[in-house]
Amino acid sequence: MIKVLCALLCLIISTPLFSQKEVKSFTVKFVSETIVPDGILDEPIWEMADGADEFWEYFPLDTIQARKQSEIKILYDEKNIYVGIKAYSSGKNYATQSLKRDFRGSGSDSFSLLFDTFNDGTNAFLFGINPYGVRREALIANGGTTRNDFNLSWDVKWRGDSKIYDDYFTAEMVIPLTSLKFKEGATKWRFNSYRIETQSNERSSWTRVPQNQLIFNLAFMGEMVFEKPLGRSRTPLALIPYINGLSQRDYENDERKNSLKFGGDSKISIGNTLNLDVTVNPDFSQVEADDQVTNLTRFEISLPEKRQFFIDNNDLFASFGDQRDASAFFSRRIGIAQDTAGNTIENRIIGGVRLSGKLTKDLRVGILNIQTAEDLENEIPSNNNTMLALQQRVFSRSNIGMFFINKQAFKSYDFIAREDEYNRVLGLDYNLASKDNTWTGQFFTHKSFQPDDKVGNLAAGSTLRYNTRKFNLFLKGVFVDEDFRSDLGFVRRTDIFKGIVSLERVFWPKKGAIQNHSLQFLPIVLWSPSRSFKTTDYDIFGRYEIQFNNQSQAGIELANSFTFLFDTFDPTGTDGATPLPGDQGYHYNSVEFSYDSDMRKLFSYGAQTSVGRFFNGNRFSVEGMMTMRFQPKAFISVLLNYDQIHLPDPYPSANIWLISPKIDITFSKSIFWSTLVQYSNQRDNLGFNSRLQWRFAPLSDLFIVYNDNYFVNSFEPKNRSINLKLTYWLNI
Hints:
Elements: H1 2-14, E1 25-30, E2 51-52, E3 56-59, E4 70-76, E5 80-88, E6 110-116, E7 124-129, E8 135-140, E9 150-151, E10 159-164, E11 168-176, E12 188-197, E13 202-205, E14 222-226, E15 238-250, E16 255-270, E17 274-280, H2 314-318, E18 321-322, E19 326-327, E20 336-338, E21 344-346, E22 349-358, E23 363-372, E24 383-394, E25 398-409, E26 422-433, E27 439-449, E28 458-467, E29 471-480, E30 490-491, E31 496-507, E32 514-528, E33 534-548, E34 553-565, E35 584-596, E36 603-614, E37 617-630, E38 634-646, E39 654-666, E40 671-680, E41 685-697, E42 700-710, E43 717-727, E44 730-731
Parallel strand pairs: 1-4, 1-14
Antiparallel strand pairs: 2-4, 3-13, 4-5, 5-11, 6-7, 6-12, 7-8, 8-9, 10-11, 12-13, 12-14, 15-16, 15-43, 15-44, 16-17, 17-22, 18-19, 19-30, 20-21, 22-23, 23-24, 24-25, 25-26, 26-27, 27-28, 28-29, 29-31, 31-32, 32-33, 33-34, 34-35, 35-36, 36-37, 37-38, 38-39, 39-40, 40-41, 41-42, 42-43
């Protein structure tokens, strides 16, 4: 098996790679004048600027010039990048969810710029603006291969605004060079820009991007050439102190708590290429509640990281291993622990440091060290959490990475078992990305170490994806030893060997209402190595999907599944119910239908429903989503999950509901109010999260957050709290 994988890897690396015949480029001229970003291109200096034009259509076709063209002009001085934009449109009826920063979605008008400042096709900075002058910034990681590589949680200071005219809008952006990382003396950056124009139902990009790739993929970029080399970035020291007052009542234990916390972060630039983040007594409590989910499996579900301290260069730490089955590092493990009853609770972080960035043109480094506090009442030790990561670029866009993780108790505790005194993981990964992104993949081997346990403990895997306009092939194999542990990672289950083969054929009609349609065959099989490779699970999917030219989508999926339960299990989570017997296999089939409407409309919706067998019974489920825009001030959404599970007596049956209405109101570009209600009878919780945010200065906020939780059946209160939190971003 290993010989076959090595031979295949050598074949891929040696295969001649497709590249664009001509690289688009323009010159960025050096200026001494200052531009005020009011959105109006009335400064005479814009007349002398070179820039990017002749955009290509990406959707609905990718073979013609954009029907609604755009023009970008870029200038720079010793401190800033200046961007001027003119985007032609069909009228003034632009779509936007709200006036809140960091908007997302193909159903809204937007203009985005991508800067690959190290010219490596792996990481990039994104700055975006819409016709209403609402801004966003994001980090693109791993070459922009998947939607998960687009991270809007990153924040940085810059300015911009827009102006709407009859058949076009203009925008101006001033991006401090201190907000970017780049090599001193650089003469060019790789660059691309893309635009979503809802009125003409068009998406376009400066550099042509094929539709089988994501529009922000970094394999498809031109160049911006600086008139003179860039100098040393004089990034200021950023101090971000906070103060948080909390008043809380726990009704279950009849306890009241009032507290006042303060601490902060600092961001220190080391040269042009490295970031040093320092945090002292951080407040990692979420002012924005996590979305609840319905979980009918036996395994844990991961939620995304939103804490700013972990965001910058997060891919350098979090991309090791398989993100679904054996992720070596999952930052949300830090700051949480289990009490003596097995409940997940917050574990205070004393402080930490995080160094990340480029050492050389091709070598990235990441070092993280965080100390958590002890909690003797809940038998939680003080732990030191450390990670070292190195990533070396090879070939055009591929890289080799290695890491070392150590989680270790700070001192000896009577309540810690010997095997829990420390957990260490060492690993090596190879990430493949061909020049035109036709071939992507990953090959990794990780080994964990615990006290008196150094034999085996392996996790290894490989993925390979071949992506073309008509055919998509995906192969995956993952092995996780039954004794493998990564206490700072996300390992869904151990003692598995998992195999996936996916083959998809995509059809592109030349005319009609259908933009493309596809057929996919996808078998997923799991075996247990410790049980002589006994088959424990399999799912065989057959899918047919249609994407229409108006951006609506429909699909049908057939599934044949098998689950072997080694232990008893109740999928309904009913208290005191008789669980399904273990040491037994269950076969079941299901069919699913889905439809998503045109997200550009003021009212849009999506729904999917499935019906079929479930273990030894039946299941009917509905998932729905509705959104309504009262633009640009208000956005209302409702999410619905309903599962009807009927198992034969004496096993439990249940109707499981998850309903989440949310309203976002933006009074202005600096004052926002959002309220989220989450009803889940599976979690026996009705939760209210209401948050008022005032952004009184760039990246400086005052939050008032009200949380209220109730038991579903009795409607008795669980806990209630109100937070007043102030953060201020100060550059020195």
